[in-house]
Amino acid sequence: MPIKRLIDPRRMRKAPPRGFGWIDHRLLREGYISRCSSQALAVYVLLVCASDAQGLSYYSDARMAQLLTLEPAMLSQARRELIGLRLIAYQKPLYQLLSLEGEPTVCNSRLPQQPLVSSESRSASVSSGLSLKAMVESLLQKKGGTPE
């Protein structure tokens, strides 16, 4: 195993003085990330940042769509995807981030087993071998942001 060292010790990540957001490493280890579209991951990260200590958030669809530059239909699709993977619960206007329990499953038989992304998006990311990092960077560039 390689020895880890801080690349920039002055910028070592620390828990924020206030707020409750964190991302559970099991999203990666238990395969949730690979089953989510980039839109669903963006919604999940926004909810992580916005939620309180119990994982609750009242962000409106309009505000979430604006922040993520998503069309309302795509936001709804991403939300259904996260609900199907049992990552969130939703009762308008309340979102709840759920604890991760076991392997990801689809709890609604109407939802497909694969992430809800267009075949064009899927084939583009598969053929180019884009990593999650590359997809996020691509989304940021489209939105005018810059990856760090």
Descriptors:
6 helices, mainly alpha, 3 strands
SSE order and pairing:
Layout: H1 26-29, H2 38-50, E1 56-57, H3 61-68, H4 72-84, E2 88-91, E3 94-97, H5 119-128, H6 132-142
Antiparallel strand pairs: 1-3, 2-3
Helix pairs in contact: 2-4
Notes on the protein architecture:
With 148 residues, the chain is mainly alpha-helical. It has helices spanning 26-29, 38-50, 61-68, 72-84, 119-128, 132-142; strands at residues 56-57, 88-91, 94-97. It has 6 helices and 3 strands, in the order ααβααββαα. The protein has a 3-stranded antiparallel β-sheet with strand order 1-3-2. Helices cover 40% and strands 7% of the residues.
Helical proportion?
A: 25-40%
Number of helical segments with 4 or more residues: 6
Helices and strands, in order, run as: HHEHHEEHH
Major beta sheet, specifics?
Answer: 3 strands, antiparallel
Q: Given the C-alpha coordinates, what overall shape results?
A: globular
Low-confidence stretches: 107-129
